[in-house]
Amino acid sequence: MKKVLLLVLVSMLFSAHARSDDPEWYIGLGIAATKLDAGDVDFTASNGTAFTGDLGGNANGWHVFCGIDFTEHFGFEAKYSDSGEAKSTLAVFDPIFGISSSEARASIDGFTVYGTGNISFTQSLSGMGKLGYTSQDFSLAIRSASSAIREDGLAFGVGLRYRFKKWALGGEIEYWDIDLGRFDEPLRFTLNIEHHFGTKNRQEHASKIESRPVSPRLVSSLSP
Fold first, then answer.
1. Are the C-beta atoms of 23 and 68 separated by less than 8 Å?
2. What's CA 72's distance to the chain center, in Å?
3. What domains does the chain contain, in order, with CATH numbers?
4. Helix, strand or coil for residue 186?
5. CB 169, CB 161: distance < 8 Å
6. What is the pLDDT averaged over residues 3-21?
7. With contact defined as beta carbons under 8 Å apart, do 45 and 146 qualify?
8. What 3-state DSSP class applies to 207?
9. Partners of 150 in the beta sheet?
10. What is the number of alpha carbons within 13 Å of residue 72 lying toward its C-beta?
């Protein structure tokens, strides 16, 4: 199923690129809140130490991205993101030292590429949908022990964007279909600022078209 969706994504991007005669580029950065949650856990390490408690939580981090809109409706985006650390406290039952507590730290960072679809609600406000692929490095540290894995999978996103000529503010929700063991698939909320540039700013072009006066000859030809 993942391979089929990727083939559809690639074919859509090539089709949009072939029809594009005036692409628009953008770069941006933002803050991100990522949910890295494993819920209530109860497990025992190889040395006999038992851990129990609510593992994971919300991490606050950042991301940077760049993209290109081949047409008004289709584009491509690449981003790097760092979740920051989701910290939680677990109860520890050690056979030698007895009962104590320990901090657990979970984090995720990596690259994601998206094919993007845009729809305009007004001249300034638009919605977007994203489908792509992500490669993420996940790490978990408890006491002096730590582990890290790299997982790849499909990525999905939806959001809103408000344009101020060549600048924009936006917000998104992202979901990554990757296997992180005890942890749920990551869910991310972001707030972004973007700068758009290229051979022609589409919003300014659209504004000029809307403000262009109607020819009197055209009006008279439409009169009954």
1. yes
2. 20
3. 2-36+57-86+106-222 (2.40.160.20)
4. coil
5. yes
6. 47
7. no
8. helix
9. 137
10. 10
Distance CA 40, CA 121 (A): 43
- 69-78 burial by CB neighbour count: b if 16+ within 10 A, else e? bbbeebbbbe
Cα angle at 25 between 21 and 28, to 5 degrees? 165
> How do residues 165-200 score in pLDDT, each as one tens digit?
899 999 999 999 999 888 999 999 999 999 998 755
- Is residue 36 within 8 Å of 106, Cβ to Cβ? yes
Q: What does pTM read for this prediction?
A: 0.76
pLDDT tens-place string over residues 141-174: 988 778 899 999 999 999 999 999 899 999 999 9
Q: Which residue has the tokens 């949910």?
A: 35
Run of H or E including 56: strand 50-69
CB atoms within 10 A of CB 61: 20
36 close to 54: Cβ distance less than 8 angstroms: no
The Cα–Cα gap between 166 and 175 comes to 28
CA distance 130 to 120: 15
User: What single-letter DSSP state applies at residue 180?
Assistant: B
- The strand pairing partners of 59, in sequence order, are 34
User: Could you tell me the two tokens for 24?
Assistant: 């628009």
